[in-house]
Amino acid sequence: MFSKSDVEKLEKDYRQAKEALPDIDNSGGYPKYPEVISKFMKVLCAPPWLKIDYDPREVKKIMSNIDNASPDNLCNVLTNANRIERFGDGQWAVLLEGDFFPLVISRAYALTKT
Question: What is the structure's pLDDT at 114?
């Protein structure tokens, strides 16, 4: 289980990664991410966020019902967020630009209050 301080760090790192979006170099045909984005995404595959047996097939279902997501569900979607770049160049940028992380972070904060 993660703590409130874990979520605060995740949020801080997310904000820094999002600010670095304009610094992505796409000149080589695929994105070259700034170190701050790469570091943020690495954190998603480390404790307390890592879910070794994550199931990418569950992500859509979890995100469509995010208000009821469990800590285990959040770890599932965050581990998947890290690994998704392997299946499509630029997917990290797509996640950082959208509402994925704010929704997950908001739910994580809610879970630290229960």
Answer: 73
Beta bridge pairs of residue 29 = none
Asked whether 72 and 46 are in contact (CB, 8 A), the reply is no
Q: How many CA atoms lie within 13 A of 35 on its CB side?
A: 0
CA–CA distance from 87 to each of 39, 56, 99 (Å)? 19, 12, 20
Sign of CA pseudo-dihedral 2, 73, 68, 92? positive
Among 47, 41, 27, which Cα is nearest to 93's? Answer: 41
Contact by Cβ (8 Å): 45, 69 = no
Cα 61–Cα 63–Cα 67 angle in degrees, nearest 5: 110
What distance in Å separates the CA atoms of residue 56 and residue 91, rounded to the nearest whole number?
Answer: 14
What confidence tens digit (pLDDT) does each residue in 31-46 have?
Answer: 999 999 999 999 999 9
